[in-house]
Amino acid sequence: MPEGSGKIQVRCTVNNKAVTFEAYPMARLLDALREELRLTGTKEGCGEGECGACTVEMDGALVNSCLVPAAQVEATKILTIEGVASGERLHAVQQAFITNGGAQCGICTPGMILAAVNLLRRFPEPTEVQIREGLSGNLCRCTGYTKIFESVVAACGESERDA
Fold first, then answer.
1. Residue 141: its pLDDT value, please?
2. Which of 61, 81, 95, 138 is least surrounded by CB atoms within 10 angstroms?
3. Of 45, 125, 111, 36, which Cα lies nearest the Cα of 79?
4. What is the pTM of this model?
């Protein structure tokens, strides 16, 4: 790294793999994931932390990666949509989104799936209110919440095999 460039080295774990990348300290995690690590499944919707399209897990908590500075991810564990499946086998939530039509235009899908996976890890048999609250940080521009909700319900119980 050239002296005076202002970039820092960031070491963290992404999708269970130790990684190191260079970024400006206040660069967005979203950009580091997409540009430095070539993990393009995480989408940018609003860039203001309002839509949830860029949702990832950081140390088990859902975060909007458009709001997280690269310097803040040092020594953390990050899960992106690319890390949800187990090899070629889709996670139960991913399969339910396909089967039940929860994946529509695709912009919100990665964030919705990560929110649902996180929810089902905490509440394997969530109530309707818990599902609505668990997905509340994610906006669907297709107004397709019914199919998304049905996908999460369908994944209940099935997701225990993916834990």
1. 86
2. 61
3. 111
4. 0.90
